[in-house]
Amino acid sequence: MDTGTDHVGVILAETDPRIGRAADGEPVAVVNAGVRAGRTVEQRHELARRLTAALGDRFGVPEHTVYVVFTEHPGEDFVLGGEPLASWDAAEADDAPPTERDGRE
């Protein structure tokens, strides 16, 4: 399975959360990200930083009110086209050498 960072599935639900350091009426974003197990802490944190910045840029959500929670699942918990995915492998990373990404030695 060839994967990368060129796609992210997003579901939005409007609600009135009053959590954390948000002032009354201040926008809040809660991101629950289900990811295939195997990505490093650094990769997950980089995604959280980018999501936080994008939510601020596009929707005006202050950085201090963006909450990102990662839940890791084995690849088999994700099914695409009726077929379960394999667990994520570092060779699938966008910065992996092309021979690793393509499965060639």
Automatic annotation (TrEMBL):
<feature type="domain" description="4-oxalocrotonate tautomerase-like">
    <location>
        <begin position="32"/>
        <end position="85"/>
    </location>
</feature>
<keyword id="KW-0413">Isomerase</keyword>
<protein>
    <submittedName>
        <fullName>4-oxalocrotonate tautomerase family protein</fullName>
    </submittedName>
</protein>
<dbReference type="Pfam" id="PF01361">
    <property type="entry name" value="Tautomerase"/>
</dbReference>
<feature type="region of interest" description="Disordered">
    <location>
        <begin position="81"/>
        <end position="105"/>
    </location>
</feature>
<dbReference type="InterPro" id="IPR004370">
    <property type="entry name" value="4-OT-like_dom"/>
</dbReference>
<dbReference type="GO" id="GO:0016853">
    <property type="term" value="F:isomerase activity"/>
</dbReference>
<dbReference type="InterPro" id="IPR014347">
    <property type="entry name" value="Tautomerase/MIF_sf"/>
</dbReference>
